[in-house]
Amino acid sequence: MTVRRGRHAEPIDPAVRAFLIAETFRFVDAVCSMPGIERIALVGSLTTDKPDPKDADLLVTVADDLDLGRLATESRKLKGKAQTRNRGADIFLANPAGQYIGRVCHWRECAPGIRMSCDAQQCGKRKYLHDDLDAVQLSSQLVANPPVQLWPRVECRDKLPADLMPFISRLQSNGNP
Asked: Which DSSP letter does residue 164 get?
């Protein structure tokens, strides 16, 4: 199978999808025990049978007072791993009220005035919150009912691809009913 990227057709490498899934679940393992992380859900193309996903998308619900520094560090690690396969990762954030609040900032140094290219609406008001709500929005339906919640308990709302099931089963066997 091939896929068009730009002007050239490239073969689809199934190992890339497997790699993204494995790295996504490593991210979940790394952040689920952080105080202030209330929910982790998988959204986007990894929840489908799409053979050549361009990125890994997670939705993380965070406490209003959570310092996003450690989460941002783990997010950059996931993005870096994905970039080794010419892919990406987005960590979308919601508050406990179920509102989409933005994404994790991808800069190691996050503060007002450091980056001219920063398009966060309130850059620096909450460190590592990239609230580019004019550019990216998640529907309230997706935030309330993501395809699969991974933590604190597994909840599958959609039929999931078979390649996700070993990871889902591992989460369930580790005490995430």
From this structure: G
The DSSP letter of residue 121 is T
Rounded to a whole number of angstroms, the distance between the first and last alpha carbons of the chain is 37
> Which of 147, 165, 160 lies closest to 50 in space, CA to CA?
160
Note the pTM of the prediction, 2 decimals.
0.84
Q: Where are the alpha helices (DSSP H) in the chain?
A: 14-31, 69-83, 140-144, 165-173
Tokens of 165: 């099931």
- The pair of structure tokens assigned to 27 is 């991210």
CATH architecture of 8-97+136-171: 2-Layer Sandwich (3.30)
Rg of the chain, C-alpha, whole Å: 16
Residue 118 buriedness (CB in 10 A; 0-12 / 13-18 / 19+):
middle
Task: Per-residue pLDDT tens, the chain, 177 aa: give them.
Answer: 444 455 556 678 889 999 999 999 999 999 999 999 999 999 999 999 999 999 999 999 999 999 999 999 999 999 999 999 999 999 999 999 999 888 876 555 655 555 545 555 455 555 666 566 566 677 999 999 999 999 999 999 999 999 999 999 999 887 665
